[in-house]
Give the backbone structure.
Amino acid sequence: MASRASAEDWLTQLTKLPTASGMEGAVVEWVNKWVSRRSDLRMVTDTGGNLLITQKGRKRRPLILAAAHMDHPAFVITSVEADEAAFEFRGGVNPEYFTGARVEVVSRSDGGVGMVTSYDARTDTGTIAFRRGFEVGDIAMWRMRKPRARKGIFSAPAIDDLAGCAASLAALDRARTKPNLKHLAVFLTRAEEVGLIGAIHAAKNQTIPTDARIINVETSRALPSAPIGGGPVIRTGDRSTVFDRELTNRISRGASSAGLKHQRKLMDGGGCEATAFGAYGYQAVGLCVPLGHHHNRGNLDEFEAGSAEPIPMLEEISLEDFHGLVDLLLIAASAIDIVDPIRDRLDDLYASQSHYLEDG
């Protein structure tokens, strides 16, 4: 069973792996090894390369899927000529972060370093000048500044959404020892950062059961109303839509009953896969932890306010928020089928108090 130390170790390993939309191979390899060490789990890959990890044995209830994505915004090198490399940037980042930025190859240990010399935000393409070590197919990231060290804060190149992957696997590892949680599974998707493509593929092709309840596990841009360190967030929606009302309420009641420190917020700083799953008819809800320097955009709030320069930085989260997210996932898996008789309570209230309507 995953201890806090094990969960943090997986978090550290996953958030350092090179990954980009459509090029999640290093993460897939890590997950495959993780699953292979647990004989009571099975993993299947759908036609889009998404990973479904389930517990072996009979399930008494429909699956609950903790869904997270395996990619992160990154440069993908598409051609190299002399001392210049062309790239495609896969992910959403303000154009100002590219100007003169230093970039390094992260998919090979002998990769090189260069500088962005051009970027076209309309096509998400550009060029990098370098002296050595760029090859077609490389994954590159900015050379990033570390945030100011703070107690209990974890920083890494690709927390979004490798932290969601780590939390989902840690919850599954704990669920393996609980007979009443045999229906908890993990679904890891590809190409989220270029338009939720892996999730859409799974929904359109029904590669996950249509009666599955999906809990999207994300990191979401920290907001003044949802700060880092305030606890994991029960996410009522994203910038596009609101999520399943009844399942969200059940998870909220479960978290409150368990006394777990948490937040319940509309996290509209970005979109997430719960929107895609819900649009295709699945019951979907969202959990997340607040994320600093979202998509490696350092000084983001200050930059948008016009008071600071855009500087690429490592992302950061609270470790207590991360561990709380693992706990919240397990609470959600137990609470998601508990129906609250709110209508019965309202009927009783109406029966006892409706005489006030007669006074007029």
Remarks:
- The chain has a mean pLDDT of 95.
- Residues 17 and 111 are 14 Å apart (CA to CA).
- The domain at 4-72+148-335 is CATH 3.40.630.10 (Aminopeptidase).
